[in-house]
User: Fold these one by one.
Assistant:
Number 1:
Amino acid sequence: MAAYLDNAATTKPCAECIEAMTDAMQNTYGNPSSLHRMGLDAQLVVDDARKQIAAALACEPGCITFTSGATESNNLAIFGAAGAYGKRQRKVVVTAVEHASVRAAYDQLEKQGFEVVRISPNTNGEIDPDAFLAEIDENTCLASMMLVNNETGAVLPVRRAFYAAKRKFPKLITHCDAVQGFLKIGFTAAELNADLISVSGHKIHGAKGVGALYMKKGVRLTPLLYGGEQEQKLRPGTESVPLIAGFGAAAAAMRKSMAQRTERVTALRNECIRQLSSMEDVILHQPEDCSPYILSAAIKGLRAETLLHFLAERQVYVSSGSACSKGKPSGVLRAFRIPDGLADSTIRISFCAENTAYDIKCLAEGIAAAQQQLIHKR
Ligand code: PMP
């Protein structure tokens, strides 16, 4: 039986998602823009899903725009805000530990002539909200900070940083990539003090290829795409009714079970910490404030990729750094002050409520076997 411990990369679609998607494909395959009954029925499915995502963020449905995933949500937020508010205010501020879809968008803004300030974690490996705030001035149009880092599970001080920033500069646009925190650690849109929040379907047991962008009322964005009038003219193109329906159903199911899931995942992570910390040459990276869903561990003397393939042979699945970096050395781990020697040996173990104690046992045995066969026999 496979031990799938790579849930930060993607999750298995839940039964509610599959049912909603199947139903949408079989029964509501009309185009939501069509004026006849079948179009209206499809529009109602999209509207229901919008309400479900809005409920999960405790906001109004009108604040939700569906996208093809968080990569698009992040790009729409960043280029959309820079386009709408960055004509005169040419400075933007971002942390140095963001997901590639935020990092690369800011790199692109730099090429377009924006001054980009990147805030690195302090010597404790934490993003200091005061250091973030200190870089924001009246020339800054946009600031981004992710909620939960996808490589280490660290929870960033979004609430505090954005609260202080908005108090001082009310016109500043704040953006949070909340993908790894959505329906995993509790928050509402209002609590984050973010004008823009990106979330993704496939990290919460929805399907791949769908996400959403929360936009606070009154915020304007320039679109990335031009075409029809779908999604308040912000995201033209015929809506993927099945993907959206599945995302909504998954969000509703995850919302209902959030407390039990958190309890279960916390217990699994604690058990994983207990087993791994008793092993020689295993160094756990545990940020002070971290999500129970992610555990970062370095196995001294083994390259993460070698270990990952060894474990995969035993049907134990984890990641090396972030799945999106595809084996490239992780600059994010370095930014978190994990020494280069350890960063290369760091794997990411990420949980969901369906994981079992058996999965943890398979992982611990797999790591022990790798140490035995790949290090000690050298
Ligand atoms: N942000 C974070 C923090 C992520 O972990 C991911 C997924 N790796 C994304 C954005 C991109 O999400 P999607 O796959 O939906 O484009």
Number 2:
Amino acid sequence: MKTWTGIGLFIVLGMLAAFMIGFRPHFTESLPIDDEQTGLKDRIVIKFSHVVAENTPKGLAAAHFARLVKELSDDRVEIQVFPNGTLYSGDTEFAALQSGAIQMIAPSFSNMSEIEPAWLAMDLPFAFGDQQAVNAALQRELGRLLLRTLDSHKVLGAAFWANGFKQMTSSVRPLQVPDDFRELTFRIQPSMMLVSQFQALGASSVKIPFNEVYGVLKDGAADGQENTISNIASKRLYQVQNYMTISNHGYLGYVVMFNKRLWEDLPPDVQQVLQQALKETTAWINQETASMHEKQLSELKEIDGFTIHELTEGERQQWIHKLAPLYDQYEHIIGSELMSEIERPK
Ligand code: SIN
């Protein structure tokens, strides 16, 4: 009897020990984890991928949007933001959105021109005098026509976010008059218009994803590049460039897009929350970029070895004159309907 009790005790203790060291059934691992203990089955997760740093207009807008959506949806909708191209680069994010691998992106207008040439309109040099002119155009027919080009691509264009005007930088010499561009190579975003822009200035260009710009400038594979002050500052391009010209010659903005199928499957109240959050974010970021650029420009002015030149009116007229042929060259590609919405620079 004593022997049987001993054996029984031995078996029970053995099972207990096995359970403690990890041989317990793994039913908990197959369950999703609800960190905040909100209803799991109702939670909607939207992955938003982008290529810039968190402290840039697009990075800040994405985070602001995510916060607003969480708040307005009472934590039912979660926007997961993936910055810095950690998921997809500018070259691959559109296809990922179409496939549904991610559900939200905000590519630059230049990137969109590879998908639909109509977006080249936004890369026409000196097409807009200031941010108000851009906003006004995008809120009217120009914006409507651009968004319409997305209809056949399984994506829904939902808003335009501002970054701002592009400035030129170089490591070789100051860029004041068109002749200063001769025989230099510039990194560009993918856009035929930007290829032609640098050709017209006597330079050549090379398409490089945003994440690689610093390296390419450092290695000398490109002598210069064009970008907004926030992109130049956040990527520390001033460390590998010596000159910047405040030229405001081109515009960098974003179209915020959803995967269309996801959008159509969302309940109407969730669509409404997303629209409201986008509206508020768009107004917020359009205000925010101006003061951000002003602050960053004064910081850049303090950097030793980084010389900043403001284009004079006379120099600006020379650039405009050199780049004017692009308007006729691209009219048939962009289409006359869209071109009639753009004023030629004076
Ligand atoms: C971006 O702002 O999304 C990228 C800009 C660039 O590629 O220069």
Number 3:
Amino acid sequence: MARSDTVYVCQACGSTHPKWAGRCDDCGEWNTLVEEAAPAPLGTQASAPKRRGRAARLDLVDLGAETPETPRLISGITELDRVCGGGLVPGSAILVGGDPGIGKSTLLLQLMARIASQDTRAIYISGEEAIDQVRRRAKRLGLAQAPVALAAETSLNDILDGLKSEGPDIVVIDSIQTLWSDQLAAAPGTVAQVRACAQELVRFAKKRNCTVILVGHVTKDGQIAGPRVVEHMVDAVLYFEGERSHQFRILRAVKNRFGPTDEIGVFEMGDMGLAEVANPSSLFLDGRGEANPGAAVFAGMEGTRPVLSEIQALVAPAAFGTPRRAVVGWDSGRLAMVLAVLEARCGFNISNRDIFLNVAGGLKITEPAADLAVAAAIVSSAMDVALPAKGVVYGEISLSGDVRPVGRSDSRLKEAAKLGFTEAIAPQAAADEKAPIRVRGVATALDLVQTLKALAGE
Ligand code: TYD
Ligand code: MG
């Protein structure tokens, strides 16, 4: 049978289908199949090497053999260096994703300016903006004098040729979705193009020991467009996120072959670009007034750093039929669990009430240690009793209603003490005489309710 020379590639998951369909069988997305030229079958490419005669040999080496450690590129932007695991690794490929307009280009221009001023050859290739636009931004950021080499180019072949002759130490490609390779018939931005271009650039990074930073746009459901395929290829994936209406931005590592993935870097967007925020707790608690019912300060950890934030809950009578549950900044499944525990283990009747939960300032919390703070905020709102104004809360709640100890209790309490908090509602294990602030230990969720009742009487 004659081989068809087009295939249909799903733009959401990258799977290929011989026929067009409204819905991708693999990931279930609608309207994502796009026609592309079929790749040549394996082994028929012109460049496929012919191995005859001599048997192929696999070079095996010892695991323990010494490898010279190349020093990392330290940018001096501490928040960014920490997220990368202590600077950028030479020869690594990094993908930086984020919503349009969040500040990716600004961050990377600032990064390149810092690195270039250390006698390192840095090239910034913009596929989205014209040279003039990038220059204007650099001027506004006060970086016009930085020795960053600039190019506006979208052809992958031209870029690779140029890079090979320039021999840079670090390159930014802004963005991967604008590049196109003339080897493929598909349009720029399609999965096939993005995958092919990323692959070539990653290969270049490894071969020439040049750090390559790829900028990727994020689709409306939060994936870097052209999607998971690129995430697998690169060494590190960083997300730059934040609420457009707030000034601060968070850089988060979701994959890192050279460092931890739970670190965040906090920046503030101002007139002069992005400024580092060394003490995020004070930023997230900024504007916090008197103690109100429904507000709890959560002593959380983001990687190695303690970060305090305010969790707000509102428990209100349900207006119509099914009560509403709306969550911003936390997992709604986890909220359902905490509510179920409060109902079943504490006899707290809230199933017929609307519940709104918000993490102030736009921070996204993923730690289970926030359970107790969420429960405290909900109980506080439902009972109309304020939590101690100078108190923090943390602890994990299990389905049995027990409050379980969480890691790094010390750092949490120390950070709270540093910011002027005088007490904590925390797992029993943290109630230690040596604790820097007074700890009200709670063993179960019911204890928490009782503690709040006691506060109401005080
Ligand atoms: P940009 O870096 O172009 O975002 P991205 O590359 O992620 O699409 O950032 C654009 C936004 O940042 C824009 O809305 C204006 C704002 N901005 C400032 O507030 N101050 C500044 O100094 C700069 C350069 C940008
Ligand atoms: Mg940009």
Number 4:
Amino acid sequence: MAANKKIILTGDRPTGRLHVGHYVGSLRRRVELQNSGNYDEIYIMIADAQALTDNARNPEKVRENIIEVALDYLSVGLDPEKSTLFIQSQVPELTELSFYYMNLVTVPRLQRNPTVKAELQMRDFSSGGGIPVGFFTYPISQAADITAFQATVVPVGEDQEPMLEQCREIVRSFNGTYGETLVEPQIMLPDNAACLRLPGIDGRAKMSKSLDNCIYLAEKPEDIKKKIMSMFTDPGHLRVEDPGKTEGNPVFIYLEAFSRPEYFAEFCPDYQNLDEMKAHYERGGLGDVKVKKFLNACLQAELEPIRKRREEFQKDIGYVYEVLHKGSIVAEKKAAETLSMVKRAMRIDYFNDEELIRAQSEKYSQ
Ligand code: TRP
């Protein structure tokens, strides 16, 4: 087993461009972890095979979004020199691991997975005659993704908690059955409640492409502004002088996630920090337009360097695919090491098992 190495694995399904919910929920953290120098290995995966579990009839969508997600990764500052960026389907060992892990998980256990349950409510598989087996079992394949890289830490959003729990159960079950082989990973969640689950601009619980309530990382400056100025706020705050609610108010939740003290000094010097601004809103006398303008300034400041970097990478798409290709080769090597440990532990490494050949020979020589 990889003794005490600190290894990160995480990833995203390529079903659309990444948005600011992904950014505060996970991408920003990944870049910090990458640059902290505290990790021995970092793997960032574009989960195309997982995306295909509910897009089997629409592979073009997945195929096209691989480059979008890769561009988003590079533009937020993930650095191929420090982090291995790769494509899930190019590492066939992951599929093989999944197949063996499937024997350690029961159907009722999968049916209890709250994330899968919620996703099933949002999707309609009835036209295809029911839930695809691949979709139903994707938590198992996710355990393969994590364990293949011997990840110790998995930085993800809160919605991935059940996946991590499932993974840890598989690790314990595997190690209990076949001997200590796999590493049990820890989840790493965002430390700020606003970042844990950034609501949509419409105030709904989650930013999601299908709800059309996202601000994308690559969004144009004028569209960012339009979206923010149209944002849902406290519906009881009708006149400027009315007291307003900041709790549960998406504009203030976004400010929790994006504002920094230096942005107050630069864009809204009436307040030193968010607490002062909130207090004014709550006692009345602070209008939504002013708050939204400040939020717009913060977001523009955060997103501009990202958009600029993206524009640079967009000029050399060949380079981006090369990064993914090289990363996939590195990733496959690591996954192959784990797979061979797994097969040894399960004793299905027949051709490397001299003891097996000896024992069988002996049996037949009597
Ligand atoms: N389920 C994740 C998502 O939808 C993507 C993913 C696949 C993942 N495998 C993973 C995340 C392993 C963390 C670890 O975004």
